Each structure stands twice: as C-alpha cells, then as structure tokens.
Known about the structure:
heterodimer, B: mainly beta, Glycoprotein, Type 4 Pilin, CATH 2.40.50.100
Amino acid sequence: xxxxxxxxxxxxxxxxxxxxxxxxxxxxxxxxxxxxxxxxxxxxxxxxxxxxxxxxxxxxxxxxxxxxxxxxxxxxxxxxxxxxxxxxxxxxxxxxxxxxxxxxxxxxxxxxxxxxxxxxxxxxxxxxxxxxxxxxxxxxxxxxxxxxxxxxxxxxxxxxxxxxxxxxxxxxxxxxxxxxxxxxxxxxxxxxxxxxxxxxxxxxxxxxxxxxxxxxxxxxxxxxxxxxxxxxxxxxxxxxxxxxxxxxxxxxxxxxxxxxxxxxxxxxxxxxxxxxxxxxxxxxxxxxxxxxxxxxxxxxxxxxxxxxxxxxxxxxxxxxxxxxxxxxxxxxxxxxxxxxxxxxxxxxxxxxxxxxxxxxxxxxxxxxxxxxxxxxxxxxxxxxx
Amino acid sequence: xxxxxxxxxxxxxxxxxxxxxxxxxxxxxxxxxxxxxxxxxxxxxxxxxxxxxxxxxxxxxxxxxxxxxxxxxxxxxxxxxxxxxxxxxxxxxxxxxxxxxxxxxxxxxxxxxxxxxxxxxxxxxxxxxxxxxxxxxxxxxxxxxxxxxxxxxxxxxxxxxxxx
Lengths: 385, 164
C-alpha cells in the first residue's frame, strides 16, 4: 500500500473516487502523452514517494521535460526507485486525511480528519484537526471511504488515508500512508487516543477497546513543524549548531522535539527541529495559543521558520479557514519579517554587549527573585483557560 | 558607552545610559526608556512602551544575532576604524555561492552563456532536496568553478556571472 501505483489499483477495485491520471508507472514518452490527454496543469509523482520528494507540478508543456528529469532524479536518490506516474492537478485543492486504526480482529476505525493544506515544497508545515472546511456529512463519508480502503488491504495498525478535496467538498483518494505520521499528535489531542501506544498494542495482537460510535471530536488542535530553514530563500535548509534553545510550555502546549542547547543540526537529515502542538476549545483560541507559544520558542544558531509561522497564525485568510495548498505561494509577504520595528532588537543587542563587558549588573544592586520568576512565568503565554 | 550597529544597509548609533532606577537607550539621538531583565543565558525580557518582548541574543565577535518574534536579525557592531573605511559598492560581478553544504547535481550554463536575471544556473542537492540556484543579475557566465557531482560547503563559489 506504500507504493502509490499499487494503492491506486486497489482503490479502483474498491470503487473509491480517484483523480484522473496514468494507469501506473510511465516511460518518458508515455508520461508526456498522458499529460497532453488529461490536460495541464499536471502533477508528476514518484511511485515510492512521500514527504513531497520526487514530486513536481507542471503548469505548461514546455516545463514538462525538465520537471520529469528532476522528479526522477530526486526519486532515485531518495527512494532508490525512479518510476513516476502522472495525474491531473486539482486547482485550489485542500489536503484532508483520515487517521485509521485497525486491529488484527477485523475492527477498523477512523479517528476523524486532519487538515494539512498549508504546505511548502508539497510538504506539510501546519496541520490541524478537525478541518474547518468540511461538513459533518462529508466527514462521515470520507471516514467511511477511508475505512473501506483500509479493509480492502486487510490493514492493521495505524495508517492514514489521504484525500485531495476541491472547494465543493468533492474528494479524491490520493494515497495511503502505512505508518504513523508526523502530524498524528493533532488527532491525539482531539480524541484523547494514544496512537503510538495502540500501534504497539495492535502489533501485540490486542483488540481495540471501543467502536466507532464511542469516538468524538473534542476541541481543536494545531501543529506547527518548526524547521531549521530560511523561508526567504525558498525554505532552504539551514543546518548548524544550536547555541541556545528555549522551548514554550503551559496548559495545552505540547512540544515534540529532541533539540537542546548545544546540539547540532546536520545536513544529512530533514531539518525539522520540533513539532509544536497546541490544544484549545475552539479553532480561534488554538491559533492564538499557537501564536503566543511560537513567540516563546527561541532558537539561536540557525535560521528557523518560526517568524513565518507566527505570521501565518496572524493572517486573516488563515484565521478564517479560507485557504488551500497554494496558500504559501500566494502569500510571499509572509516569508520575510517585512518592515518591523527593529528598535527592540537593537536595544537587546546593545544590552548583550554591555552585559558581556559587565558594566550593567554592578549598577543595579540585588535583584528580586520574585520579579525574575514573574518575568520567566510571563513567557508561558499569560492566558490560562 | 556608544555603539555603532549596522543592520542590512542602515547604520544606528546606540548609547546606553543608567539613570537612577531607569535605563535609557538612545538610538540615533532618540531617547527610549527601557525596563529589562536578563532571564536566562542569551535571553532578555524587555518592556518597551508597555509591551513585553522576549528576545534571544547571540554574540559572536562583532556579529550579533537577535531573534525577536521568531525572526532573525543580523546586526554588525562596527568599530570606529571600520566606519572610516569607505563602503564598497557592488560591481556587476556576482558570485553564485552554495547556501549550504550540498552536492552539485547539474550545471545548467557554460562559460560564455547568457543568463537572464532570476534564471536558474545550477542545481544543488542537500537533505535529499534539489534546489535551483538563480542568477541575481542579467549577464554572462564568466567562470564555472565546480563539476557535477562535487560536494561543496556553505559559501563555496560555484559560478561567476558578470553583467559587463
């Protein structure tokens, strides 16, 4: 099921809606023929792909050849397999996926959807659960389709069925991820279900202890993937030494990371630093909480996408839930700090120099530890719910 | 103590004065009363105009990195001697440098080729992602310093483009 072409065949047999495209892997000559037939824009995808690697959007015929070469070459170096397929690119799509949990006793459940439309380089950056774009009716239908696909392959464990959805809530099967995904925490936060724990239990032959009707959505969760990368240069990775790390905390804030002051981010792996996840009772409250948690996240030594993530949280279209997978491309202004008041940065720099020369501390007399504690506690968002 | 800071092309003259219970920072002759606390190594809490900010600072020689609301600001502390040096203007010769440790996948231009501004000239790969580096100016490729397949470090010059 991890192979996209096999997955497509299985979905076809299970009569699940599919995006028009090539029937399986294609040669260079066939690929261009398929693209002409289904019409541009088209998507070239690596059969063994994942994480957006080996994937290229082609808007015009002239770009097809070079995009095909890049997709194949990336697929070869990432997955050791350069076979690709071609399909129609759905305009203004949203990426919505369903979390599946299946045991070895024939019980297959879904844990509702995740909204993963905020992407850069076809890789998810911000995810949330539930999705603000789907009706209760579509949610139910999508969940049922996902369960049908998982059952068709007699799947067991945690899996995700990914869909692409247009503005009218028409959805098409994209692929199934036969693993626990990066964004699984948002589902855990709204369902109270520990996905990783149950993966292990299912592998051990245990039975899921509840039925679909026992599950419900509680509140709203948002995840931001914090990367060592530079949004202003097309999200170029920024490996290096993390001199200093300060992570946020507080009620409903979860920081899944392994970074610490003094660690190194090498250029051999994906430059993800952390998955920052927040939970609150409404979407608006969750976004506000994420914005303040991001402001508390201080990483020194490499470039990060934190400033960019804060600007997305404050963006009106994002807040209203009016976005699709082209959101970042349409909002280049979010990539850089823009015209901000840099006086505080200058002041901090001057204070740091004075401090290193130890000319300030001596003038100030003894410090109050209560005051210091207050300042430190003030870091934790300030608002409790 | 007075400092001269350079951020991008802008120069700021900064002075910190301690007055009784108050620290006043003067930026380009403008007085700004500041309340601050160093709350951790590299971390300052600053109250400015009633607004509280948490700012990370990393000092490495004369280069200071400041992180504020997730954005990185690179500040250069200029000594008086540096200030006297005349600033050099950019000529029409641009070095295309690798922004990170990577591998050269494909060189798209040869010596003598014409390039348009923003046209891709070399493809590099790092962390299994390929990126196309673009020419910042319109001109001609005057030198190619690497071969396809080469491993390069951050800052290595790959090609040179000249507008002359």
